[in-house]
Recover the amino acids of this structure.
């Protein structure tokens, strides 16, 4: 099936640093989503992007839907300890409920 | 509280012993889906259901069965589990036809020895 390439696979940063991760695909998507998974829990939606070029913020998080519709990035500014977790990108085609997920980026923060 | 509930949270079993993981949602969602999560592979879809009595294969359906007799429930059945089905499983649900996020359960960690 389709797959998204998400990078980096893991990040080790200091508290207060900014974080950037991205996803690329060989296929175009009409919707890009970013989820976060805390230990022992299911993924929770952070940001949804519905239009090519769209830039959306949610607090310290900012995500963009690439112009080509084949990529997206997520930035986290001024990281804090509760940002630790696994971040997943997901692509979706209009009219299709199926999400295609990236492999995840595991974020670790040193206090 | 709106939620997707999976049971059990943890399960250790032996090869060949049939098991069922239950999933229930209280949000009246039409769409439900099962995913498995493995290190380095992200979440891969096993089966999905667009509504009652409407199920279809995802990307990795081999060795699994599902049923959707009621809107709220979507059990995952492993008729003869094997060690390669050791994984973390997530059930998810959402509304169809609208921009509605996928709501995930808290996961079931299955170990098959």
């Amino acid at each position: 099936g389709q797959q998204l390439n998400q990078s980096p696979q893991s990040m080790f940063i200091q508290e207060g640093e900014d974080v950037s991760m991205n996803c690329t695909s060989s296929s175009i998507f009409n919707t890009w989503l970013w989820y976060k998974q805390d230990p022992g829990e299911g993924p929770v939606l952070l940001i949804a992007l519905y239009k090519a070029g769209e830039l959306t913020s949610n607090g310290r998080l900012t995500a963009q839907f690439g112009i080509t519709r084949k990529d997206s990035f997520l930035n986290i500014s001024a990281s804090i300890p509760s940002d630790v977790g696994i971040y997943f990108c997901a692509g979706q085609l209009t009219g299709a409920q199926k999400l295609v997920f990236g492999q995840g980026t595991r974020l670790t923060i040193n206090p | 509280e709106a939620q997707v509930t999976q049971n059990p949270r943890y399960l250790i079993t032996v090869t060949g012993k049939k098991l069922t993981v239950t999933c229930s949602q209280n949000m009246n969602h039409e769409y439900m889906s099962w995913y498995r999560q493995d290190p380095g592979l992200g979440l891969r879809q096993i089966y999905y259901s667009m509504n009652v009595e409407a199920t279809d294969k995802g990307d990795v359906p081999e060795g699994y069965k599902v049923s959707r007799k009621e809107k709220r429930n979507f059990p995952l059945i492993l008729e003869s589990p094997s060690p390669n089905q050791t994984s973390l499983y997530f059930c998810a649900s959402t509304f169809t036809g609208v921009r509605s996020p996928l709501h995930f359960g808290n996961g079931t960690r299955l170990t098959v020895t």
Observations:
- The mean pLDDT of chain B is 94.
- The longest strand of chain B covers residues 42-51.
- The radius of gyration of chain B is 13 Å.
- Residues 66 and 76 of chain B are 5 Å apart (CA to CA).
